[in-house]
Structure prediction request, 549 residues.
Amino acid sequence: MKGKEYYNTAVYLRLSRDDGDEGKAESNSITSQRDLLRSFIRKHDDMEIYDFYVDDGWSGANFDRPGYKRMMEDVKAGKVDCVIVKDLSRLGRDYIEAGRLIQKTFPAYGVRFIAVNDNYDSLTADFNEEALVLPVKNFINDSYCRDISSKVKSHQKIKREKGQFIGAFAVYGYVKDPENKNRLVTDKYAAGIVQSIFDWKLEGYSFEAIADRLNGLGILSPMEYKRSNGEKFSTGFHTGIRTKWSAVAVKRILTNEIYTGVLVQGKTERVNYKVKKSVAKPETEWVRIPDAHEAVVAKEEFDIVQDLLQADCRAGAGREKPHMYAGLLYCADCGEPMVRRVSRYKGKTTVRYICSNHNKNGKCTRHSITEEQLDKIVLYGLKSRIDRIVEQSKVVASVRGLEMRYDDIIAFDNEIVGLKAEQEKYRKLRAALYEDFRGDIISEEDFKTFSAIYEKKYTELEKVIRQQTENIKELFKNGLEAGVRLEQFKEVLELDALNRSVLVTFVEKILVYEDKRLQVVLRCQNFYEKTALLYDFIKSTGLDGQEAC
Prediction:
């Protein structure tokens, strides 16, 4: 490159975020780079500083940096004909891009490039420096960046598995513990809003209705709340106006498992250390740590909301909430949801439900039932069943030492007895199969095929039996509280009329038969059945102090 008498010099300064000085307007390293390069330029009469281009807190793994891009705009505009950096790594750690920039782009624009500490000056560099030393140094810088990226990923993985929070910002409803930034603690105000959102969803409000209600109450959206607390929160969706609650924001809260105390991290990962783009990881690879922090919403309540989100619970035109039985009422014969129909005759309004399959194509019978009939039957049935469960649970809870009779109770469980009998059947089939193979009655191929089928059935039954026994153990362990919530049951027993909140809390679904019979399927049905099992066992053995009949 032929020298010039005078160079307009761009001074480029860069420091990665990991090496910066937190809390300072400019890091010490940037200041030292500035002083070094200014001193260098003072010693050269043919150079004058055109401008400083600073990327403080930016990685050198890629060239998507504001300071660098502004410098290149001035280079292409002919305002700058010399670029100076402390060393090659300040320009960038991607050896391919850095090499292309130094050996092709800068020469194409007639730009002189100087890396002070590497003693490189494109004006005086010989062939060996251009063809050997420069590529090797760039390659070393790139390898360093790759190694650092690998170490950071490994360190983050270890932190996730230990249940440490590593996000930049806590999710709405939580803040970082002032004494431990890797731990979440509840923000009482925001956590109260989250709880209200879940309560309103249980009452039947749509995402849009909840968002409108929050905005109407003047409650700040998650983004605005962070800003009001002085957090340096940014997003790619800038509109220049104050952001409000939206249906999307409400849905995001209602589907976030973090509010149950479960810390879920590692949902995405960077493509590689050179590319900022992240891709979603399979759910099986997420890191889930239960009880990592205080729950804002009970697990049972969260699960109910997830069930409701899967059902068709849309509100009618002009309504904030769907009808009380939305997402709960189904035809007992075809399994399709029941639809609500309103008729008016001589000033009287009648609400009834009919099978949607019949309503659409007539492929099922009407299964018609009025809302008035439904309310009476469901309320009576729910109260009578809850009354029975409360009675049974009180008897079971009053008996001490049931753990000592654990094996007897397992043997008393008809379901487990039946499962074990079926499992024994497959064991015998498998044994008989081997005898048939030895006697040349079946081929080796048939033996392997049927043996695999019987083994699979046997293993599946083993898992089911294990789960059933664990259910009974869970009742022991938690004193029946896991399956029987007496305080809530008492609330139901005092009701004179049904409401949406009670229904979704206790009822999983209601099946309607053609003859207007109803089958009410309770949530946690298996726990209630095991409570009844323990009750029957206690009564049959006289453990409650009364002689068995």
